[in-house]
Amino acid sequence: MAKTAIAYKEKMKEISVLSLICSCLYPESRKNIMGDFEDMDIKPINKRASGQAFEVILKPSSPVSEVAHYITTPPKRDISLEDIQKKLEAAEDRRRSLEAQILRILAEKREHERDVLLKAMEENSNFSRMAEEKLQMKMEQIEENRMAHLAAMMERLQEKERHAQEVRRNKELREEVTA
Questions:
Q1: Which three-class secondary structure state does DSSP give residue 89?
Q2: Mean pLDDT for the chain?
Q3: What is the pLDDT of residues 69-83, one digit of tens each?
Q4: Beta bridge partners of 60
């Protein structure tokens, strides 16, 4: 098949060169340029505005031509039992190596997954601890503010009580003076 494709490419090169030469030398006989090649037929298709079109039909290869294209392969050398054993051992070594490599890759993946899981757990723990500390500080601040507010209210109440006592004393003094 590859040889047919190579032959096809070579024939197409020949056709284009032949067509060019013939069209320059014999402009009137351009219609009958298409010839018959041994492994393909070329038929012109209706002329187009952009140029010419051809239909290339490959002929089935003949047994005579195929014999000429075949290249004889070198004779196979005899394979000994030792060679077979060496090849089997090499294949077994490759299999073991591949298996070890796969196991190593899987172990690395497991290690990575474990590291990621540990890191996520550590970050979660840190976040929980920080949230708890923040909440504790907020609660302490609220308690301090409450105590300060209560102390301020008690101070105002005592101030009012002192003022009320002073007003009562002044009232009693006025009543004693006026009575």
A1: helix
A2: 82
A3: 556 777 777 888 899
A4: none
